[in-house]
Amino acid sequence: MFKVAILGFGVVGSGTGEVLLMNSEKITHEAGDEVELKYIVDIRDIDDPRFAKYAVKDFSVALNDPEVTIIAETIGGAGVAYEYTKAALLAGKHVVTSNKELVAKHGVELLEIALKNNINYLFEASVGGGIPILRPIQQCLSANRITEVYGILNGTTNYILTAMSEKGASFEDALAEAQKNGYAEANPSADVDGIDALRKICILSDLCFGKNFSPDLVQPIGIRPVSEYDTKYANQGGYKIKLLGRAVSDEATDKVAVYVAPHLVSSDNLLASVTGVMNGIVVRGNALGDVMFYGAGAGKMPTASAVVADIIDCCRHTKNRKRIMWARGSVEDTFPSANIASRWYARVASPEGTVKKYIPDAEILGGDVSQTGFIADEKTKPEVERQLEPFEVLSLFRVI
Amino acid sequence: MFKVAILGFGVVGSGTGEVLLMNSEKITHEAGDEVELKYIVDIRDIDDPRFAKYAVKDFSVALNDPEVTIIAETIGGAGVAYEYTKAALLAGKHVVTSNKELVAKHGVELLEIALKNNINYLFEASVGGGIPILRPIQQCLSANRITEVYGILNGTTNYILTAMSEKGASFEDALAEAQKNGYAEANPSADVDGIDALRKICILSDLCFGKNFSPDLVQPIGIRPVSEYDTKYANQGGYKIKLLGRAVSDEATDKVAVYVAPHLVSSDNLLASVTGVMNGIVVRGNALGDVMFYGAGAGKMPTASAVVADIIDCCRHTKNRKRIMWARGSVEDTFPSANIASRWYARVASPEGTVKKYIPDAEILGGDVSQTGFIADEKTKPEVERQLEPFEVLSLFRVI
């Protein structure tokens, strides 16, 4: 019998409780023994009669109960969640979580504690919700030198960009609609400014390249700079605008660049077909080529099912912890993403003729008398900025 | 130090050798110790100087060498491969393989031997080439009751169907082109008649639903019945024709239906965008919803990288074998796929007016004076056949 405490009874926490009840037979079979909920720790009252009996307000009850060997941390944030996780790991309890902020910021320290205590700290649900991604990278792609990982990591922004693309809406109107439909928060900054996507791509980078890349090292670019003109010109050229998180390893130096920014995605890339709140993540291996993982990147039950899968994995690995670890990294291990060469989409405040005069091989996507959207040849960021010096640049996104 | 023998030095076997050399540093890191190739068993001579030194013609040399603890079986087929695999497992050696025919036919017996000897029999490469799929199902989706798994499991047929769709080619012309370009064998039957896809969907079914579904229980339908008219009408309606393997679990009875057949896939299903030789596999969980795995489903290096990932997993699990197992199944555990209700595409030798007369709500996709392609409402197969009794039916495919 394995006894579990859930910390935080919000969306993912209550979903975790529901999955444990709904699929208890399957879970027992997979874990090799019964998995029983013992406590739900939340400062708020729990009204749901299925769960009220587990409620405690004081974390130390769960922490000090030797029967509880697995903690599901679904509080979120890097405050009390950090404190509780550290305490649980130091007390020799396995911890599983969906908390991307905590893993991105303090993962390396928490993994070190877990390693020292020969217990598990697992966080499949922190990236891509229920999509299996961290474990496949860790295990299935282990024979590959991974060179790059990138993807649509935030469902809210993809929902907004899809609405802009399909309805020709402005960013403001599409955001308002997303908020009305419950897909965006009243304060949407963590999503639309790319902060959430940055945390996730940092975790992916840590896992793929073995060294911690701190989200503090880069400033994400969100989707506010995407105008309805960009969407229109992209569509005309057969592209879709997607907010991508991307991590690239330089083979010669082993240094890593991580960034988040809008991209024009060509229609022959499957990510262009990932619409609405769905997520898609591409991993490139030197033997494998590209593989993509696709599914609901958020949502109560999908995310909870990943939390519970990690609980099951803790049951299976009580003695021999899962080999999941990365080293401390520093700015020395990174290189600026501006140095990555790519094609670029630019929208400039000049008519097509002026663009053609300065950049004869520009691929014109669309425009009018006041502006032109076009694609320029493969270049680093400083190079394309030099090329665009004659223009007033309204938008500048990479093409992938 | 882990010592490995490769059985069979064909495409996947030589790729396995190359991945072991190319990524040896990464592999050592992941396995926790050096992984060294000791023998390559093949009755043919090996000319490549990098590998000639490992060549032996007699399997018993590898079998009787106590230093060799891991065998990579890349012979293929269910003849000598079966015999060697059984001998290796009985001798207490871990076996990894890309051999879908052997796993589909004899997996349950070989897994039983592996379980008894507390060793691993792993076969990630047998489905989807390098795409991580079996392990994510086994581990990441463990908290879900899986209700369905389906996908594009054969690259050759997808290449042919893509050519038919994009160029309006006939099946015969598209097959000839695929053969010319090395994507189809001189005798293409295993691919175009759905035999390869059936083996793979049986393995997926075994793993998802826990009981062996023998490929002998069903007759696959391949892509020979797909005409250029079907492709044309499908395109006109916004669908793509794809050969899908599909396994569905009936919740009430826990019985499973498995089949392989061409389908019309709606453009809002990401599988419709999987073109050329690529594979895409959708898994549906009761908590998770749908996730999709996408990548190169075949090819030397991708498949070999999955074989080597399994070798690494054997190194990590020398004492505590991976929990991968399914029970013996029989026809009692199955139900006929004809009982699954779905929408249907039919092409009949009648003009549109006649179709409308008998089936007023038919969604007409296209046609001419001699024939009509249309979509009929959700029905089981016997029901749709009854509905189509007034017609000469030229094609009948499910819509998904």
Describe this structure in words.
The structure is a homodimer of 400-residue chains. With 400 residues, chain A is of the alpha/beta class. Helices cover 35% and strands 25% of the residues of chain A. The first copy, chain A, has helices at residues 11-22, 24-31, 59-63, 80-90, 100-116, 134-139, 155-167, 171-180, 189-192, 195-209, 228-236, 300-316, 352-358, 381-387, and strands spanning 2-7, 35-41, 55-56, 68-73, 94-97, 121-122, 146-152, 239-249, 256-266, 278-285, 289-296, 342-348, 363-367, 372-379, 393-399. In chain A, a hairpin with a 3-residue loop joins strand 10 and strand 11. The first copy, chain A, starts with a strand and ends with a strand. Chains A and B meet through helix 1, helix 2, helix 6, strand 11 and helix 12 of A and helix 1, helix 2, helix 6, strand 11 and helix 12 of B.
List the helices and strands and how they pair.
The structure is a homodimer of 400-residue chains.
Chain A lengths: L1 E6 L3 H12 L1 H8 L3 E7 L13 E2 L2 H5 L4 E6 L6 H11 L3 E4 L2 H17 L4 E2 L11 H6 L6 E7 L2 H13 L3 H10 L8 H4 L2 H15 L18 H9 L2 E11 L6 E11 L11 E8 L3 E8 L3 H17 L25 E7 L3 H7 L4 E5 L4 E8 L1 H7 L5 E7 L1
Parallel strand pairs in A: 1-2, 1-4, 2-3, 4-5, 5-6, 9-15
Antiparallel strand pairs in A: 7-8, 7-10, 8-9, 10-11, 12-14, 12-15, 13-14
Main sheet specs of chain A: 9 strands, mixed
Unreliable sequence segments of chain A: none
Number of helices of chain A: 14
What do the pLDDT scores of chain A average to? 95
> Which two chains have the most extensive interface, and how many residues on each?
A-B, 52 and 52 residues
Radius of gyration of chain A: 23 Å
Q: What class do helices, strands and sheet pairing of chain A give?
A: alpha/beta
Shape designation of chain A = elongated
Q: How many runs of DSSP E, i.e. beta strands of chain A?
A: 15
Q: What share of the residues of chain A lie within helices?
A: 25-40%
> Kindly, what is the distance between the CA atoms of the first and last residues of chain A, rounded to a whole number of angstroms?
49 Å
What is the element string of chain A, with H for helices and E for strands?
A: EHHEEHEHEHEHEHHHHHEEEEHEHEEHE
Give the spatial strand order of the biggest sheet of chain A.
11-10-7-8-9-15-12-14-13
Strand percentage of chain A, roughly?
A: 15-25%
